[in-house]
Amino acid sequence: MMNLLIKHGCLGTYNSTHNDEPIIITLLEKGYMDSAKLLLDAGYPLHKQSQQITSLLPRIQDAQALSFIINELENSASLQSICRTTIRRSLGKNKIQGKLGQLSISNGGMLPEVIVKFLKLESVQTVFTLENEQRVVHQFEVLY
Question: I need a surface site. Which of 3, 13, 74, 111 has the fewest CB within 10 A?
Fold first, then answer.
């Protein structure tokens, strides 16, 4: 469910409504690193929350997840990521998946399928299982 929302242009708001902390921390803390990666690939504004995220790092128990988020905080987004985010945002907030499938190049031809899949975030395979042990609730807002 989470991945579907992300792929269709919805990104978690900066904070969870349950405990007022970044959704990326909740995902990593619960072991959903694939969903956290997808969220970042979709353009989640990690660096706008870097101070708050850094203060919550001790809560992440998984060494791989901790290493991942520290690396993301210390480095700038890749050019690929910036391009994908810019194109997705330029398409607006509604029906983003359909709009991506209709993109064409200047001579009227269609974009190659590999580029459309990249823009649709289909090149990133993830699995997300919602566990509601502590009734963690996240709001989503369309940022594209």
Answer: 74
Closest CA to 39 of 22, 60, 57, 58: 22
The pair of three-digit structure tokens given for residue 38, joined into one six-digit string: 């997808």
**CA-based nearest residue to 8, from 87, 79, 100:** 100
- Global pTM value: 0.68
CA dihedral sign of residues 70, 71, 74, 75:
negative
What is the three-class DSSP state of 28?
A: helix
Q: Is 140 in a helix, a strand, or coil?
A: strand
Q: Residues 108, 109, 114, 117: is their CA dihedral positive or negative? A: positive
